[in-house]
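User: quick one
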Amino acid sequence: MSTTFDEDVEAEKASPPTKRQKRAARIADAASGGIRSILVKLLLLGIVDAIAVYAILVLALSQEWLVLAVVVGVTALVNWIYFSRRTLPAKYLTPGVIFLVLFQVFVLVYTGYVAFTNYGTGHNGTKEQAVSSLMAASLERVPDSPTYQVTVVDQLGTLGLLVTAPDGEASLGTNDQPLQQVDPSDVENGKAVAVDGWTTLQFSDVIARTSEITELAVPFSDDPNDGAIRTPDGSSGYLYTSNLEYDEAAGTMTDLSTGTVYSDTGTGAFTAEDGTEILPGWQITVGFDNFVRAVTDSRLAGPLVYVTLWTFAFALISVATTFFLGLFLAIVFNDMRMKGRRYYRVAMIIPYAIPSFLSALVWAGMMNESFGFINQVIFGGASIPWLTDPWMAKLSVLIVNLWLGFPYMFLICTGALQSIPEDVNEASTVDGASAWQTFRHIKLPLLLVSVAPLLIASFAFNFNNFNVIYMLTNGGPRDTGAPIPVGFTDILISMVYKVAFTGQTRDYGLAAAYSIIIFIVVAVISIIAFRRTKSLEEIN
Amino acid sequence: MRVNRKSLLAAGAVAVVATLGLASCAGGDSGSGDNGASAEGGTLTVWVDAERVDALKGAADAYTEETGVEVEIVGKDNATIKDDFIQQVPTGEGPDITMGAHDWLGELSTNGVVAPLELGDSAADYLPVAIDAATYEGTVYMLPYAVENIAVLRNADLVAEAATSFDDMIAKGKAAGLDQPFVVEQGAEGNPYHLYPFQTAFGAPVFGTNDEGYDPTDLQLGSEGGIEFATWLGGQGKTGTGVFNTDIDGNIAKQAFLDGTAAFWLTGPWNVGSALDAGLNVAIDTVPSPTGEAASPFAGVKGFFVSSESENKVAANDFLVNYIGTEDVQLDLFEAGNILPALSAAAETASSDPIIEGFAAVGAEAVPMPAIPAMGSVWQYWGIAEASIINGEDPTATWEKLTADVQAAIDAR
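Assistant: Done. Structure below.
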């Protein structure tokens, strides 16, 4: 049938347009909007370009040249596509491609990049940031030293501190010039505020030159061990000594109190010879270290095995139970003899309509051993350890996931069943097949053709079904034998979450490596499964 | 030019989103930008939890008027403020100042995102526990504004007098005809924070202290007192008196107290409001000790941190020490959060409220929660061990395993 149709089309193309065809072309032209659509297009592209120009200005000010180039390129491309006459397919593809790049490719590439770094607690920024943070933290106020009143003064661009000691004596110094006694030209409330030859900075000037003032450390005397006066707020100064010294040329940090030298050994932190690190460190690329650790870490290796097994079991059983319950209900409610089917169907959808994390929390409450609804009301005060016994907890997770998941399967099965023509039924009845035989050999295979891809997607979803685990049991009950806080209902994704993000140490690099491994597992399974479902289609 | 209008609209929307997305990746100079030199006095960006935005408006306006520095108060979700801060400071997008809790300090400092803060002579004006909490490895990093700790809420209509000891509390409750007179939040994974006062009563802190604060190399958890505490806890658990029950989570404990089926509730100031709203006659008591020694809860201190990458450090220091550190602002913040101010003078004023006074009296015995990163290794085993002791596991063996696990986790770092 389709072949003849194509031939028709080609025949029409060859001959000159008939009256009817001309009219059809006019209608199509009117339907596509003509001048109005061009105006709308100009307006929309104008808005896009205006925003792009704004973005370019902002980016130019913050000197982000690479992103700026990308924005210019994308904007030019978008304009060309929608003004050109030859780019009809691109007009449809562009929005999708931009979405794809922004929300999928970028995220994937970035996750991949993080997996090869040591990004995490203690390795959060650049080396310069780590050095300045270490230097700032190593400053210690000299014990029992007084508060000095200070005035920031300027001489030809060089900042100095005019310091008034508690005894009223004034002295002046700069970064290079230790404090020397001076005669102030103006004193307010016992605080020297001006001195000849120097300009006194007003507070707004102080704020404007913040970075210079944070660097300003006036040596107290010629002996560097006496420390230096610094001012954190521009009006009071304190005497500080530092217990770390940074040697920029050698790239080493020296602890002045113990004499230990910490050097950059390529691990992303200053490391002493005995291996002790001082944190913060900085981000570096570590190659495949995270992947190696993910599979060889002795603390993780044991739990990883049973968590992986349980993850597969959880995903498979969840898909199977929800599918068969959904299918059973769909068949039941598809039967014409059932009265009030519409109301039952609405009732079936309710679990689907409630956000899953909310229902999981409600279930967790109902399954509480001594106070929960299920034990108190349904089982008359029995204390069934729904969530605290390892096996019961696994069962509970499956029950709750069944409750959450069957409406979806019910919906798709209802749809798929209604698309199977009724004459299949009649034909098999005529051939003398029983209802079960009809279902088993005819309806189920037909159904699976359309439903199988959804089952695979559902498997992938349940493989990473973080919500239900986290909200219902939080992976518990805990395996007290394991050296990491992993529990008997943890699936891979929730275990990774616990390893990488709970407690005070985050390890984004490791987490990214794990998520890539999980992604590969799910992808491989899906590809194999999709290949196999093709054989189903050969039934027809 | 036959282009479907829908696809055009979609394309427009996409392009807008895309451009904005790309621009905000790099631009969006919302934080400590380089505007210090260009704008008249610069801008201070301050992240605070959303409930306290209004309380800080006055101080911000006063500061702007005095110095010409704009103060932009940004309300943030309290649950994400710490992670956002840690992630954004190194990129230069973070704020100049953020509000936070003192037990973040270890993490913030390990990540190098906070700058030391010099309180100068004003340090003496704060409650000692607040200054202790703000100090990490001998350096002050936080301007404290509030001190928070748990205490026992007593339903004064059921039990008229404060209990003198733990056993006395249970006896008084039973005399009033209650099956479960005392409730405390636990849950399947335990809740060491709420059990800590009892643990300290047995003389078993988590870490020992040196002159720089808590000493991560001196784990005290497994001391003799720790074993005694574990034994006592086991005796009050499932196989003993049943005073502690891991099935009682926060909501169940709260409901029991509000329903009047429990007369004593060990909880924090955050729950007082709902008890008062329920029309209960609430009194605040110190935590009744099982041993005779003081039962010291953890104190959580809230305060403000300066970003290590702030380009307005002078203004940030000045704003915190000289404005947020004043009695008026501390009282404004107190009214927004109803927890004890950290500034002694403000704390005294606030204590005219009997509830606050009650918490302040308990707070005088409180110890700051350790902020050292080693504490993270403790939390992940601590609660689960206590929960299994409550559920009838052998107390001594469980506690010894807990100590060994924690020590191993600290050594593994």
